[in-house]
Amino acid sequence: MSNCELYVKGAAVWLPHPDLVWVCGLLDTDFTTTPATLAVIMQDGERREIVVKKVEELPPLRNPDILIGENDLTTLSYLHEPAVLYNLQMRFCTKTTIYTYCGIVLVAINPYEECPIYGPETITAYRGQSMGDLDPHIFAVAEEAYTKMERESRDQSIIVSGESGTG
């Protein structure tokens, strides 16, 4: 199946937006190369006609609803900028979860407020658990590294990267 065959009526796509960065719309027609256009119904009901000069210019497809808010970005069907940003937004705004995995990488969103997720009960919950058994958390990363270091005698490194003051 070529990528073009996924662009059928009812498929959800992401379109750039000057203020919101990306907005979702539903295809109102199947994509055809003659004429090379897409009719998209936006969330506000507006109908847009998009000219597609090259197949590479097709808008990114949205992940199925069942994958929205996944705790590991690598499980998404489509892994591109709007999919990652939307998934992180859903986890942070809807589920109030600041941590998300991307494979073995832990992505954190700074909530700019104190979070009650670092107490002794949380430490106990993650102790002895494998990474991925529980929701993403910095304690899961620490437990994984400690286990590999202590039980398997494997050297470990944890890299913390981000804004000033991250570490």
TrEMBL record:
<keyword id="KW-0547">Nucleotide-binding</keyword>
<dbReference type="GO" id="GO:0005524">
    <property type="term" value="F:ATP binding"/>
</dbReference>
<dbReference type="GO" id="GO:0016020">
    <property type="term" value="C:membrane"/>
</dbReference>
<dbReference type="GO" id="GO:0007015">
    <property type="term" value="P:actin filament organization"/>
</dbReference>
<dbReference type="InterPro" id="IPR036961">
    <property type="entry name" value="Kinesin_motor_dom_sf"/>
</dbReference>
<dbReference type="InterPro" id="IPR001609">
    <property type="entry name" value="Myosin_head_motor_dom-like"/>
</dbReference>
<dbReference type="InterPro" id="IPR027417">
    <property type="entry name" value="P-loop_NTPase"/>
</dbReference>
<keyword id="KW-0518">Myosin</keyword>
<dbReference type="GO" id="GO:0016459">
    <property type="term" value="C:myosin complex"/>
</dbReference>
<keyword id="KW-0009">Actin-binding</keyword>
<dbReference type="Pfam" id="PF00063">
    <property type="entry name" value="Myosin_head"/>
</dbReference>
<dbReference type="GO" id="GO:0051015">
    <property type="term" value="F:actin filament binding"/>
</dbReference>
<keyword id="KW-0067">ATP-binding</keyword>
<dbReference type="GO" id="GO:0005737">
    <property type="term" value="C:cytoplasm"/>
</dbReference>
<protein>
    <submittedName>
        <fullName>Unconventional myosin-Va-like</fullName>
    </submittedName>
</protein>
<feature type="domain" description="Myosin motor">
    <location>
        <begin position="68"/>
        <end position="167"/>
    </location>
</feature>
<keyword id="KW-0505">Motor protein</keyword>
<comment type="similarity">
    <text>Belongs to the TRAFAC class myosin-kinesin ATPase superfamily. Myosin family.</text>
</comment>
<dbReference type="GO" id="GO:0000146">
    <property type="term" value="F:microfilament motor activity"/>
</dbReference>
